[in-house]
C-alpha cells in the first residue's frame, strides 16, 4: 500500500491523449480555437466531433423553427477535398457534399448553392470555392454555423483563408448576427522563419480565435503517438555538375526548345546530386514514346502562340528534332547501376542505399523518403527496382502531387490513393514522396523517415517527422559531410520548435490543454470536502488522489497483448460552472465505465470518477481488501501439458437396454396394437404380410426407418399404433403367446418356457397387406388379426410331417432342430434326384461338417443332416426319401446397416427330410418375421429415448429424439476426426443437432441474462452465461436427470434384442459377451463432453420439433431443464420480454438528433424504432462515454446481437444444407459472422455513419476501409458486366479479399440487431427479416466461400501438415481443465498439438474451438519458418507422402 502512496506523491499519473482531445473538444464547443497539435495526435477526430455536435445542435435549432445553416470544412488542396470528404462521409450520419475547382462553372449559380445548403449539413471544399460564392452572396456568412480551417497556418496575407475572414467574417457584428464557430487545425502556427510570438498573435487575430495546444509533449508518451529517434546520414561533398555525352547529343537536337529547358537543367544538376547513371536514366524515364508525343504537342502549342511569325517548315523541323531526341534516348545503351561505383551513383545516393540496407527490415518496417522534386522521387523509385542492386525485398513506390502542364510529371488523385493503399497493405514498404506527403494527405503509419532533401521550414520538419508514428521509429536527415550549413538548418528548425514550445508554455492556463492532472494537489486542497473509504478488515484507505494510482495499477494487471500498455481514459465535460468526469477502462476490464460526482474543477472531477470506479471494483471483488487487483497471472493447476491431455475424461455409466414399458407384466385384460409394415415390401423378394406387436401400454408413434437387404434393395419400416385397445380373453392371450413363442423358436431358434404373464409383448399375424391403410382402423382392432392362423398354429403340432403334406411341399419354411443357423424355403419336389446324388457346390458349411469330420461324402444326404458323428453313425441312408429343391436363407447380421452385406453364397440346394422339419408357420409370416430383430431393436431404442424425453417433460418428435441421443462412436463429438469403434446402423448421430442446439442455448441464455440483469456489463454477461452453458454445468445436470442411461451408444446386437425375464429352454444364452464392453451387462463408457453434447442436441431437437410453427417454447423448456439455474427459469418465449423492464434512459424523451437518426434508419432499413435512444445506444462506441447523452455504449447490445446473429445464421445453414456435417457448417458459418463480412455489411447499409466515437484514427481507418470495400464491389460489378451477366449479378464474395475492417464496424451491426430485437419487444421475426433482406443475398451459394472456410487456422494447419510436410501422425487434443484462482469464464479448455506422440504446442481458451484456433496459430508461426527437411528432423517424422495422401487432411482436426 505504501509504495502506491509514494508513487502518487512523487510521480505524475500520465493519462492517455483522449483526455486532451476531450478537453479540446469541450473548449471548441465554447469558443473559437486554433488546435495546434502534432501530426497524428487526433486533430481530425476533434473536427469530426465538433462537426457532429454542431450538426446535432443545428437539428435542434431547425426543430425550433430557426433558419437553416451549414458547416464548411475548408482545405488548401483539391486532393484534400476528396480525402477529408471520404473521412467525414464514412463517419457522419448527415449529408456531406464536396466541391472543388473542377466544378467551378457549376458552382457559379445561386440555385446550385441553395440546393447544396438545403440538401447538406456539411460541405467540404477548397477555400477558393467558398470565397467565390461569398462574393456572389450565394451563401451568406450568417448561414454558416461552423468554419473549419485545415492547415490553418496558411491564414495570412491574401490567402483565401485570410480573405474569407477579413472580407466576410470580421464584418459581422457579433452581437447582431450569428457568427459561425471557427476551428483552425495545424501542426504549427508558423510556417516560415519569423518571430513565433508575433506570428502566433497575427494568426489568432486573423482567425478571431485562441491557440489551444499542449505545452508538455510527454502527455503522449504512453499512447500510440510516438516521437521518433532522430539521426544523420552523412555523404561526401558532391562534384560540380557536368554534361554527359547523352546530354550533349540531346542538347544539340532540342536544347533551344523551351519545352526541354527544365529537363536539361535537372539532368545536369543530377550528375552532382545523384550520379551520372541517374542523369542519363532520367531521359529514358521522361522521353518515352508517349511522352515524346506530348512534348511535340507542347512544342506546336508554343510555336503557334509565339508573337513572332515563323515558317511552318520551322515547326516541322522542331517536331522532327523531338522525334530524333526520342530515338537517340531509345537507342542509348545504359549499363546496370553498380552499388559501389562512384561513376554510376553519387555518394548521397550510395549513402541512402546503405541506410535502407542497414535500417529497413523489409518484412516488418515501412519507410518514407522525402525529396524536393518529383523527378528525384521517380528516379529513386526506379533505381531501387534495378536487379543489379539486389534490393528486391524493398518494394518501392512514389507519391507525387497532381500533374500540371508545366512538364512536371504528377499523379492523379486515384493514383495517390492507390499508392497509399498499397503502402498500408504492405504491397509497398518504401515510398519516395514530395511535399504532398508532408501536409494534409494522410499516409499510413510507418517507422522510418529519411529526409533526402532537408526541410526548409520548421513546419516541414514537424510534419514530416510526424509521419513516423510507430513505436521505436527513426527519423534521418541526410547531410553533407563537413557542410555546416546543413547542420545549421536542422538546428534552426529544432530551435524554432523549442521556441514554439516555450511560447506555448507562456500562454495563460486557459489557453493550454493541461489535462486533468494539472496542479491536482492545489485543486484538491480547494475542495471543501471529498469522500474517503476505509476497508474494515484491513484498514486500507481509499482517497480521491490515491484512487488514481490504484486504478492505474488495476488496469495494468488486465489481460492485454504483449506490446500494448493499458491506461484508464477520463472524459471531462462542463456542466454549468461545474465539471463532471467519466472514467473508461479497456475492453478486458470487468467494469467498463463509472461517472464521478461533480466538482468545481476538472482535476477533482477526475479524482471523483476514479474513486467511484474503485468503489465499484471493490464491491465486485475485483479489488481485494488491500485495494490491489485480483487479476493476477495464474498458471493452470495442470501445468504439465503432456499430462493434461493424455486422455479425455470418461466414465462407465448404467445403460438402459430395454424400455420401462416392458416392465409391466401379468395377464393383461386388454392389449394395444401397433402394426409393423413395410413401405416397399417388394424389396423382400418374397410375399410377406405385416405383423402386429401387442403391448400392455400404447407404444408411441415413432418415425419410419430403413432396412437394407443388399443389392440396392431397401424398404422403410412403418410402425402404426392403433388408437383403440383390444379387449382380450385368456384364450386370446394363449394364442398370442403360442404364436410369439413359435416365431422365436422356428425363426430365431430360441425356445422359451410358456409364461404369458412374463412376456413383455406379444406378436400376431394380420389379415391385410402392407399397403392397407391401418390408420383407418379406429374401433374394432380384432378384425385385422388373422385369428384363423392363430387357431391353426395352436392346434397344430410343433412340426409338420412331410408325409402329411402331399402336394403342399412348395413355399414352406424348413428348420433344422439340430443347427439353428440352417433355415430354408422349399421350392418343390425333385423326382429326378436321389439322396446320394452330389450336392450343389458353393453351399455354406454346416456345423455338422465339423461334427462329422471332413470324410463324409458331399451328397444331398450328408448336407441335409447336421447331427454329431456319433448320432449320425446310427442312421442308415434311406434311398427312398424324396429330394426337395429349396433355397437356403443366409443369416444377415444387421439389416439396419447399409454397409453390412450378406454373404455371397450358393442359395439353391437340395434337401431330404430325415432330420429337417417343416414349420407350421406360413411363409409370408416368416419372411416378415426375419426382420423382427432389427425392428424390435429400433423400436426399443426409440421407446427408451422417448421415455427419457417424457421424464424431462419434453414432447420431442421421435426421429429427432433418437438422433439427439445417438452416439455412434467413441468420439462422435470430434466431428471430423477419424471415428473410433463405430457402431453401424444406428442412423443419424447427435452432432448436427448439437451444432444447432449449442447456438439456441447461447441465444436463449443471452436473452435471459440481458432481460433480467439490465445493469450488468459485457464481461459479467460472459461470465454469467458461461455458468449456464458450460459443459460442466450441462454434464452435472444431465447426471442428476439420469440422462446418461438413455444415451444410445451401442449398435444392433443379435444376441440382446430378445425379451428379458423369460426362461430359455433351448438356444444360445447371451453369455458369450457378458462383460465385454458392457454389451451384456447394461453399462457403457461415455466421455463427459458427450453427455453435455447430448443436452445441446436435445435442445436442437426441441427447436426443430416446433420449427414449422415458429414456436420456441419447447426449446426454451429444454434449456431451462438442462441449465437448471435461477437466471433461466423461462418456460415460454413470452417470459423473456416479461422479465425485461424498460430502463429510464431508453424510454426518456429523445432529442431532435436521436429522432433524426431513427428516421434515417427507418428510411434505410424499413424499421421504425419506438425508442430512438435505444437505437442511439447501438451506435455509441465505448470510447465516447455515456456522459454526454446519458446513454450506455453498445457493448450490451452487441453481446445480445452476437447471439441472435449466430442463431439466425446457424438456422439458415442447418435448413439449407440438411446433409452437411458440423465441420462444414461451422467453417461456413464463420464466413457469415466474420468481422470481414459484417464490416462489409455495415458499410453497405451505411451504419458506420451513425457511430459516435472518440478513438484516435478510427475515423480515418473507417474511411480507408469504406473506400476499399466500395472499390471491391465496383470491380465485382464490372466483372459481372463484362461477362454479360449484368451488374446486379456480381459475385457476392467480393469482400473476402478486402482488408479487415476496424472492429467497430462489425460491432455496430451486432449492436443494431440487438437494438432491433429489444425495440420490437423481443420479436425474433424482426431479426429473421433483417437476415433475409440484407444478409441472405450474400449467401445463396455458400460454396463460393469454401476457400474462405479453408483459411480457418485449424483447417489451414491440417492442410499444411498433410500436403506440405507429408505428415500423417498428428492430432489436436482438448480437455477441460481447472484454472486455479482465475475468474470464472477465463481459460478453461486446454488444447495440445500432438505430433508423433508428443505435445509440440498448447494453448488455453474459454472453449475448445478457440483453444484449437490459438494452438493452431501458435504452432503455424513456427512451422512456416521450417523446410520439409527441418520438420522431418525436428519431429522425427518418417511418414511417406503416400501415407499422408491416404489420410484425410481433417482426420485429426476440427474447427468446432
Give a verbal description of the structure:
The protein has 51 helices and 37 strands. Strand 17 and strand 18 form a beta hairpin. It is 42% helix and 13% strand. With 1456 residues, it is of the alpha/beta class. The N terminus and C terminus are likely disordered. A seven-stranded parallel β-sheet has the order 3-4-2-5-6-1-7, sandwiched between helices. The chain has a six-stranded parallel β-sheet with strand order 8-13-12-9-11-10, with helices on both faces. Strands 20, 21, 22, 23, 24 and 26 form a six-stranded antiparallel β-sheet that branches.
Name the shape in a single word. Answer: elongated
What is the number of helices? 51
Briefly note the structural class of the backbone: alpha/beta
Please report the total strand number as a whole number. Answer: 37
Distance between the termini: 46 Å
Radius of gyration: 43 Å
Average pLDDT number: 82
Report the uncertain regions. Answer: 1-17, 219-224, 516-520, 633-647, 848-853, 975-979, 1071-1080, 1381-1387, 1449-1456
Strand order of the largest sheet: 3-4-2-5-6-1-7
Proportion of beta-strand residues: 5-15%
Helicity level: 40-55%
| Major sheet size, sense and barrel closure | 7 strands, parallel
Amino acid at each position: 500500500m505504501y509504495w502506491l502512496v509514494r508513487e502518487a506523491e512523487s510521480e505524475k499519473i500520465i493519462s492517455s491523449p483522449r483526455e486532451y482531445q476531450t478537453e479540446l473538444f469541450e473548449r471548441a464547443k465554447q469558443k473559437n480555437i486554433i488546435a495546434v497539435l502534432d501530426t497524428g495526435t487526433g486533430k481530425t477526430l476533434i473536427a469530426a466531433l465538433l462537426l457532429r455536435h454542431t450538426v446535432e445542435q443545428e437539428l435542434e435549432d431547425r426543430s425550433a423553427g430557426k433558419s437553416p445553416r451549414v458547416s464548411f470544412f475548408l482545405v488548401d488542396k483539391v486532393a484534400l477535398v476528396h480525402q477529408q470528404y471520404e473521412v467525414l462521409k464514412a463517419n457522419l450520419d448527415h449529408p456531406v457534399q464536396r466541391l472543388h475547382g473542377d466544378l467551378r462553372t457549376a458552382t457559379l449559380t445561386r440555385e446550385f448553392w441553395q440546393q447544396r445548403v438545403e440538401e447538406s449539413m456539411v460541405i467540404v471544399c477548397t477555400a477558393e470555392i467558398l470565397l467565390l460564392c461569398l462574393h456572389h452572396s450565394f451563401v451568406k456568412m450568417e448561414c454558416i454555423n461552423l468554419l473549419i480551417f485545415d492547415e490553418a497556418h496558411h491564414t495570412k496575407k491574401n490567402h483565401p483563408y485570410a480573405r474569407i475572414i477579413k472580407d466576410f467574417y470580421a464584418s459581422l457584428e457579433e452581437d447582431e448576427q450569428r457568427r459561425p464557430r471557427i476551428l483552425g487545425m495545424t501542426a504549427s502556427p508558423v510556417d516560415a522563419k519569423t518571430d513565433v510570438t508575433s506570428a502566433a498573435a497575427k494568426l489568432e487575430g486573423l482567425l478571431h480565435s485562441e491557440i489551444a495546444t499542449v505545452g508538455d509533449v510527454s502527455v503522449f508518451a504512453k499512447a500510440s503517438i510516438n516521437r521518433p529517434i532522430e539521426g544523420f546520414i552523412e555523404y561526401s561533398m558532391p562534384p560540380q555538375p557536368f554534361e554527359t555525352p547523352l546530354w550533349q547529343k540531346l542538347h544539340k537536337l532540342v536544347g533551344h526548345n523551351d519545352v526541354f529547358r527544365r529537363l536539361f537543367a535537372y539532368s545536369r544538376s543530377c550528375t552532382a546530386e545523384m550520379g551520372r547513371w541517374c542523369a542519363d536514366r532520367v531521359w529514358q524515364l521522361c522521353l518515352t514514346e508517349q511522352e515524346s508525343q506530348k512534348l511535340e504537342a507542347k512544342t506546336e502549342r508554343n510555336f503557334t502562340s509565339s508573337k513572332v511569325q515563323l515558317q511552318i517548315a520551322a515547326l516541322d523541323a522542331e517536331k522532327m528534332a523531338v522525334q530524333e531526341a526520342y530515338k537517340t534516348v531509345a537507342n542509348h545503351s545504359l549499363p546496370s547501376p553498380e552499388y559501389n561505383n562512384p561513376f554510376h551513383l553519387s555518394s548521397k545516393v550510395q549513402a541512402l542505399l546503405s541506410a535502407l540496407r542497414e535500417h529497413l527490415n523489409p518484412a516488418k518496417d515501412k519507410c518514407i523518403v522525402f525529396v524536393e522534386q518529383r523527378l528525384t522521387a521517380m528516379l529513386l523509385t526506379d533505381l531501387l527496382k534495378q536487379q543489379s542492386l539486389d534490393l528486391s525485398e524493398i518494394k518501392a513506390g512514389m507519391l507525387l502531387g497532381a500533374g500540371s502542364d508545366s512538364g512536371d510529371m504528377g499523379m492523379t488523385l486515384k493514383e495517390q490513393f492507390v499508392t497509399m493503399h498499397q503502402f498500408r497493405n504492405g504491397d509497398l514498404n518504401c515510398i519516395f514522396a514530395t511535399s504532398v506527403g508532408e501536409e494534409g494527405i494522410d499516409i499510413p503509419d510507418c517507422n522510418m523517415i529519411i529526409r533526402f532533401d532537408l526541410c526548409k521550414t520548421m513546419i516541414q520538419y514537424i510534419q514530416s517527422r510526424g509521419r513516423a508514428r510507430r513505436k521505436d521509429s527513426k527519423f534521418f536527415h541526410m547531410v553533407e559531410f563537413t557542410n555546416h550549413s546543413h547542420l545549421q538548418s536542422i538546428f534552426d528548425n529544432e530551435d524554432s520548435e523549442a521556441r514554439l514550445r516555450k511560447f506555448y508554455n507562456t500562454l495563460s492556463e486557459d489557453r493550454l490543454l493541461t489535462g486533468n492532472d494539472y496542479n491536482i494537489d492545489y485543486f484538491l486542497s480547494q475542495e471543501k470536502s471529498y469522500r474517503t473509504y476505509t476497508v474494515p478488515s484491513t484498514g486500507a484507505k481509499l482517497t480521491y488522489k490515491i484512487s488514481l494510482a490504484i486504478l492505474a495499477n488495476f488496469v495494468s494487471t488486465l489481460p492485454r497483448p504483449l506490446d500494448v500498455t493499458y491506461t484508464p481514459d477520463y472524459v471531462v465535460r462542463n456542466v454549468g460552472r461545474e465539471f463532471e468526469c467519466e472514467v473508461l477502462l479497456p475492453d478486458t476490464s470487468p467494469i467498463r465505465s463509472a461517472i464521478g460526482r461533480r466538482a468545481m474543477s476538472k482535476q477533482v472531477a477526475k479524482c471523483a470518477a476514479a474513486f467511484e470506479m474503485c468503489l465499484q471494483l471493490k464491491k465486485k471483488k475485483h479489488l481485494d481488501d488491500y485495494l490491489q487487483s485480483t487479476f493476477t497471472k495464474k498458471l493452470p493447476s495442470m501445468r504439465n501439458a503432456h499430462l493434461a491431455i493424455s486422455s479425455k475424461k470418461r466414465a462407465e455409466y448404467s445403460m438402459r437396454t430395454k424400455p420401462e414399458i416392458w416392465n409391466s407384466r401379468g395377464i393383461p385384460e386388454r392389449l394395444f396394437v401397433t402394426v409393423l409394415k413395410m413401405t416397399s415390401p417388394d424389396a423382400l423378394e418374397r410375399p410377406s404380410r405385416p405383423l402386429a406387436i401387442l403391448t400392455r401400454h400404447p407404444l408411441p408413434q415413432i418415425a419410419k426407418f430403413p432396412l437394407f437387404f443388399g443389392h440396392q434393395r431397401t424398404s422403410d419400416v412403418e410402425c402404426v399404433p392403433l388408437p383403440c385397445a383390444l379387449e382380450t380373453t385368456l384364450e386370446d392371450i394363449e394364442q398370442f403367446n403360442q404364436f410369439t413363442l413359435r416365431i422365436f423358436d422356428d425363426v430365431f431358434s430360441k425356445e422359451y418356457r410358456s409364461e404369458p404373464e412374463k412376456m413383455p409383448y406379444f406378436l400376431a399375424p394380420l389379415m391385410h397387406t402392407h399397403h392397407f391403410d391401418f390408420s383407418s382402423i379406429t374401433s374394432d382392432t380384432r378384425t385385422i388379426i388373422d385369428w384363423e392362423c392363430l387357431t391353426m398354429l395352436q392346434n397344430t403340432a410343433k412340426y409338420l410331417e412331410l408325409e402329411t403334406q402331399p402336394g403342399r411341399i412348395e413355399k414352406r419354411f424348413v428348420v433344422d432342430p439340430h443347427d439353428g443357423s440352417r433355415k430354408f424355403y422349399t421350392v418343390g419336389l425333385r423326382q429326378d434326384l436321389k439322396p446320394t446324388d452330389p450336392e450343389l457346390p458353393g453351399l455354406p458349411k454346416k456345423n455338422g461338417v465339423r461334427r462329422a469330420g471332413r470324410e463324409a461324402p458331399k451328397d444331398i444326404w450328408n448336407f441335409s443332416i447336421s447331427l454329431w458323428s456319433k448320432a449320425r453313425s446310427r442312421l442308415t441312408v434311406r434311398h427312398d426319401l424324396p429330394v426337395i429343391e429349396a433355397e437356403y436363407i443366409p443369416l444377415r447380421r444387421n439389416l439396419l446397416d447399409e454397409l453390412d452385406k450378406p454373404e455371397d453364397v450358393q442359395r439353391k440346394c437340395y434337401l431330404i427330410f430325415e432330420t429337417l422339419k417343416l414349420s407350421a408357420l406360413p411363409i409370408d409370416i416368416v419372411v416378415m418375421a426375419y426382420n423382427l430383430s432389427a425392428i424390435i431393436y429400433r423400436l426399443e431404442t426409440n421407446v427408451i429415448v422417448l421415455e427419457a424425453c417424457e421424464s424431462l417433460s419434453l414432447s420431442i418428435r421421435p426421429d429427432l429424439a433418437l438422433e439427439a441421443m445417438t452416439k455412434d462412436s467413441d468420439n462422435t463429438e470430434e466431428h471430423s476426426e477419424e471415428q473410433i469403434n463405430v457402431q453401424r446402423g444406428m442412423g443419424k448421430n447427435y452432432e448436427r443437432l448439437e451444432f444447432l442446439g449449442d447456438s439456441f442455448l447461447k441465444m436463449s441464455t443471452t436473452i435471459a441474462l440481458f432481460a433480467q440483469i439490465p445493469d450488468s456489463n459485457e464481461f459479467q454477461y460472459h461470465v454469467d452465461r458461461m455458468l449456464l452453458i458450460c459443459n460442466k454445468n450441462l454434464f452435472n445436470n444431465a447426471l442428476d436427470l439420469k440422462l446418461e442411461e438413455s444415451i444410445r451408444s451401442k449398435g444392433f446386437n443379435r444376441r440382446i434384442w430378445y425379451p428379458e425375464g423369460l426362461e430359455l429352454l433351448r438356444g444360445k444364452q447371451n453369455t458369450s459377451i457378458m462383460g465385454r464392453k458392457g454389451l451384456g451387462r447394461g453399462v457403457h463408457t461415455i466421455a463427459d463432453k458427450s453427455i453435455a453434447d447430448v443436452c445441446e442436441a436435445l435442445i436442437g431437437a426441441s427447436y426443430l420439433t416446433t420449427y414449422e410453427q415458429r414456436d420456441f417454447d419447447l426449446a426454451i423448456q429444454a434449456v431451462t431443464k438442462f441449465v437448471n439455474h435461477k437466471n433461466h427459469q423461462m418456460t415460454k418465449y413470452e417470459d423473456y420480454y416479461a422479465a425485461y423492464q424498460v430502463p429510464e434512459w431508453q424510454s426518456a424523451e429523445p432529442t431532435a438528433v436521436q429522432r433524426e437518426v431513427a428516421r434515417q434508419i427507418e428510411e434505410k432499413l424499413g424499421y421504425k424504432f419506438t425508442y430512438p435512444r435505444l437505437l442511439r445506444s447501438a451506435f455509441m462506441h465505448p470510447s465516447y462515454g455515456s456522459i454526454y447523452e446519458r446513454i450506455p455504449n453498445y457493448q450490451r447490445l452487441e453481446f445480445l446481437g452476437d447471439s441472435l446473429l449466430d442463431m439466425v445464421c446457424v438456422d439458415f445453414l442447418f435448413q439449407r444444407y440438411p446433409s452437411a456435417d458440423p465441420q462444414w457448417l461451422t467453417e461456413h458459418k464463420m464466413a457469415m459472422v466474420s468481422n470481414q463480412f459484417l464490416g462489409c455489411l455495415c458499410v453497405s447499409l451505411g451504419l458506420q455513419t451513425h457511430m459516435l466515437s472518440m478513438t484516435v484514427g478510427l475515423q480515418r481507418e473507417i474511411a480507408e476501409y469504406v473506400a476499399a470495400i466500395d472499390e471491391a464491389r465496383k470491380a465485382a460489378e464490372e466483372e459481372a458486366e463484362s461477362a454479360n451477366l449484368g451488374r446486379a449479378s456480381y459475385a457476392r464474395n467480393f469482400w473476402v479479399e478486402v482488408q479487415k475492417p476496424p472492429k467497430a464496424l462489425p460491432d455496430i451491426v451486432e449492436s443494431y440487431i440487438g437494438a432491433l430485437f429489444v425495440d420490437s419487444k423481443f420479436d425474433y421475426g424482426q431479426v429473421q427479416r433483417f437476415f433475409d433482406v440484407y444478409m441472405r443475398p450474400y449467401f445463396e451459394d455458400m460454396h463460393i466461400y469454401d476457400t474462405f472456410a479453408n483459411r480457418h487456422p485449424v483447417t489451414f494447419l491440417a492442410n499444411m501438415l498433410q500436403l506440405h510436410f507429408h505428415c500423417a501422425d498428428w492430432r489436436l487434443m482438448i480437455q477441460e481443465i481447472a484454472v486455479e484462482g482465475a475468474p470464472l469464464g477465463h481459460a478453461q479448455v486446454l488444447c495440445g498439438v500432438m505430433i508423433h506422440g508428443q505435445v509440440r504446442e498448447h494453448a488455453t481458451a474459454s472453449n475448445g474451438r478457440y483453444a484449437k484456433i490459438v494452438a493452431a496459430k501458435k504452432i503455424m508461426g513456427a512451422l512456416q519458418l521450417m523446410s520439409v527437411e527441418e520438420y522431418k528432423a525436428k519431429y522425427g517424422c518418417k511418414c511417406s507422402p503416400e501415407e499422408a495422401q491416404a489420410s484425410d487432411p481433417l482426420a485429426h482436426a476440427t474447427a468446432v
